[in-house]
Write a structure and sequence with these properties.
heterodimer, A: mainly alpha, B: two-stranded antiparallel ribbon, two-stranded antiparallel sheet
């Protein structure tokens, strides 16, 4: 494989950065949602929601912008994937709607049934959303049936193949681990201790899923490791990812919760990098006819648009990163409930 | 059932429901900047109480705007894949720019606006309020630019490849400043300001009628009235400019708006009417020569009519006519209400004029309806084109999506949105009945 750093490669990277940003940031608040029902106390549940309260909708913007960037840079992919995975995406959108309104509505009324209803919505939507995102990624890795017009010709049930489901469950496990560390980071006292226990369990859950996914990928999806065989230097990525996972219990043990959180963030980034290395230069692999695949070249916008978008990104992204990190800094420290809280 | 029609219904349903909320965010953003600015200037706790109350309302409308907005970002791909492939090179950049320049700004600083009262200084909080308002307006800029490009495409050329043809960008700024973009933007933003202004007026009038929170309600009402007068009158001006752009670039739409059939003849303007499309007649009350006058400044100049276009290139006439006239009618009533309110404020009797307060309580529905009808006029009037003159709506749908899938998603959205609407109204009603919290008056602005 020869690779020149052209606009298409840069945009492959930028869309990857946006989706990785989404996975790291919304990943922890989807994970908090997935863990939400594990504590029964109303105060704990409020603390967990308020821990993500100021940041969750900003985190979701990474997905929206990732979608917009995909539309602008690789319109063929945007069109093929979203129309092809139609029902799966409609379900995902419903999950995201339910999550958003559950966070907003839950604590607005004192009735027990009301809160219970939104707690369940929040948790189910968080788990379901994570699962569907993972299933979508699983299908991108596995390959989907496309025709010569670049239209998806598979079925909804075909998307729920065992490999994609395994990636989906792994995503849920990853986000739960990431979310548990965030809860530890943002809380104190009883809930803090409880969440430390969640970290242990979710790490084990994640490692089992990750091991199985890796085995399945090596056995059944050999194209995912072709670049790594050709360029063994890429093997550093899985090594670093595993080291990042291994570092989490160590940091937690020493009470350095923020470093543990950075470690799990690095784990998410490492996994996304593995996917990127594996699929490059395809964006949507066609199975069984790989010659019909959508690549970063045949699915891209014109060089002019890619250039314009690069300028937009070069202006916008540094500003976004500057104020987003300032806002995270302002909301650092343990979460406390006050009259404006959810 | 026809998959094209189902996709259109779904897009219409999801955008209409979504569009209840962004105008409130855009307009309330401006009103919050005014209220918090007054607080910073005067340090009167009343303005702080007002800011906090309206921020809570803002939070609720914003959350629903986000929840329903994510759907829109992906619906071009899910339901309009052929359209997305054709326009992605041009249209996609506007959407991506909206994400980078608007959504991040809005949602990032919203955190400080809602939860940062005790964490930052009053000035930083004020700055955040301004950024949220600015973000909401940026979002309007990019989405209206994108939508306007579909009305008056510019700055592109069509390139034929082996597989299919597509629009590719030639001049980014010509795309952004396409002929209808700026008039549509100003008209849309002023419509949003009206939505929020009449919302504030409605809640304030309700408190005055109930004789609760009098000081709060009077002060809120004054700010609401100032914005209402400015935005209502501004809408009239921008509406007129918008009409002239439609006349120049989309004559078939203009002809449908007024039910004007003769290929080339002076045209009147109907106050109201009913279009019989079969025998090409309008029954109603018309001001003769008025449309000619508004378009050309001369009552005798001809205006292009619908028969100048082949039948397959004409939009549905009566729906566009009715939506347009209802929008204009509501707009006129809103101008009247705003001016009357301002006059009675000047006379010092506004807060005791109970009949007007009652009207204002319900007038909140006016701008909402007008915004929806205006959107309907613009989009249905563009038919049968998805990109005017370039791509037909029927050619834009996703070939891989089946009728069954469309029925399922449409049913899902209908159910969820109905439930959300009921919940939104219920929680809004609770918040309004609860009123501005007493402790909003004495909570220290800046504890740290």
């Amino acid at each position: 494989m020869t690779m020149a750093l052209d606009l298409n490669v840069i945009w492959f990277g930028l869309v990857g950065v946006l989706l990785t940003g989404y996975a790291i940031l919304d990943g922890f608040d989807l994970g908090v949602g997935a863990l939400h029902l594990l504590t029964r106390k109303d105060e704990h549940r409020r603390l967990m929601i308020n821990a993500i309260g100021p940041v969750w909708d900003g985190n979701e913007v990474w997905l929206v912008t990732g979608g917009g960037a995909l539309f602008a840079a690789f319109p063929e992919v945007y069109a093929t994937v979203f129309s092809g995975f139609y029902l799966a995406f409609m379900l995902l959108l419903c999950m995201l709607i339910f999550r958003a309104v559950a966070i907003e509505f839950r604590s607005k009324q004192p009735m027990r049934w009301w809160r219970q209803m939104w707690d369940i919505s929040f948790s189910v939507a968080s788990i379901g959303g994570s699962l569907l995102l993972g299933v979508a990624f699983g299908n991108i890795i596995w390959g989907v049936p496309l025709n010569g017009q670049r239209e998806f010709v598979g079925s909804f049930l075909g998307l729920l193949n065992p490999y994609a489901l395994l990636v989906g469950v792994t995503t849920v496990a990853l986000f739960m681990m990431h979310g548990a560390i965030y809860v530890v980071l943002k809380t104190e006292g009883e809930l803090h201790e409880k969440a430390r226990g969640w970290i242990n369990n979710t790490i084990i859950f994640f490692i089992i899923c990750y091991g199985l996914t890796t085995m399945a990928t090596l056995l059944y999806v050999p194209h995912m490791s072709q670049h790594m065989r050709a360029y063994p230097v890429f093997f550093a990525v899985p090594v670093l990812t595993m080291l990042a996972v291994a570092n989490i219990p160590r940091e937690i043990y020493h009470g350095r919760d923020f470093l543990a959180f950075l470690s799990s963030g690095a784990t998410v980034a490492g996994l996304m990098a593995l996917v990127a290395i594996g699929i490059f230069p395809n964006l949507v692999l066609s199975r069984p006819n790989p010659e019909l695949s959508l690549t970063i070249y045949n699915a891209a916008s014109s060089p002019k648009t890619l250039t314009i978008m690069l300028i937009i990104a070069a202006i916008g992204v540094p500003i976004v990163l500057a104020y987003t990190s300032s806002i995270y800094y302002i909301f650092r420290g343990k979460v406390k409930l006050d009259p404006m809280s959810y | 059932m026809d998959p094209i029609l189902l996709s259109r219904i779904q897009f219409g349903l999801t955008i209409s429901f979504h569009y209840i909320f962004p105008p409130l965010s855009i307009g309330l953003g401006v009103i919050l900047v005014l209220m918090e600015g007054l607080y910073l200037k005067t340090r009167d706790p009343l303005f702080q109480q007002m800011t906090r109350f309206w921020v809570r309302i803002f939070g609720l409308t914003f959350a629903l705007g986000v929840a329903t907005g994510v759907v829109m970002e992906f619906q071009f791909g899910t339901n309009w894949a052929a359209y997305s492939r054709f326009v992605g090179d041009v249209f996609g950049s506007a959407l991506a720019a909206e994400g980078i320049f608007a959504f991040f700004l809005e949602s990032g600083f919203l955190a400080i606006l809602l939860f940062g009262w005790d964490k930052v200084s009053p000035r930083v909080h004020m700055f955040s309020t301004c950024m949220v308002a600015l973000g909401a307006h940026f979002s309007a800029v990019w989405i209206v630019v994108a939508g306007s490009w579909m009305q008056t495409p510019a700055g592109f050329h069509v390139v034929q490849s082996a597989l299919r043809s597509r629009a590719e960008i030639v001049d980014f700024w010509a795309m952004v400043f396409n002929p209808s973009a700026m008039v549509r933007l100003t008209h849309t933003v002023l419509g949003a300001w009206q939505a929020a202004a009449f919302f504030v007026l409605s809640v304030s009038a309700f408190y005055l009628l109930e004789r609760r929170h009098i000081k709060f309600a009077r002060a809120s009402m004054k700010i609401g009235l100032i914005v209402a007068v400015a935005a209502s009158l501004g809408s009239l001006v921008t509406g007129h400019s918008s009409g002239r752009v439609v006349a120049r670039y989309q004559p078939a739409k203009l002809a449908a708006m007024e039910g004007h059939f003769p290929a080339s003849a002076p045209a009147g303007m109907y106050l109201f009417g009913w279009v019989n499309e079969a025998d090409q007649r309008v029954t109603g009350l018309s001001l003769p020569g008025m449309l000619s006058f508004l378009v050309h400044g001369d009552t005798t100049k001809p205006v292009t009519g619908l028969t100048a276009f082949p039948p397959q290139d004409r939009p549905p006439v009566n729906p566009v006519f009715q939506a347009f006239h209802a929008m204009v009618g509501i707009g006129m009533v809103l101008i009247g209400l705003a001016l009357l309110g301002a006059f009675l404020w000047w006379r010092g009797t506004l807060f005791e004029t109970r009949w007007l307060l009652w009207i204002l309580v319900f007038a909140v529905l006016g701008p909402q309806a007008a915004n929806q009808l205006g959107w309907f006029t613009a989009e249905v009037g563009r038919q049968p084109w998805i990109v005017y003159g370039l791509m037909r709506t029927a050619a834009g749908v996703s070939p891989s999506v089946t009728t069954g899938q469309l029925l399922a998603s449409l049913a899902l959205f209908t159910l969820i949105y109905l439930a959300l609407f009921v919940l939104f109204i219920y929680l809004l009603d609770q918040k309004i009945r609860h009123g501005p919290l007493a402790d909003d008056l004495d909570v220290a602005y800046h504890r740290r």
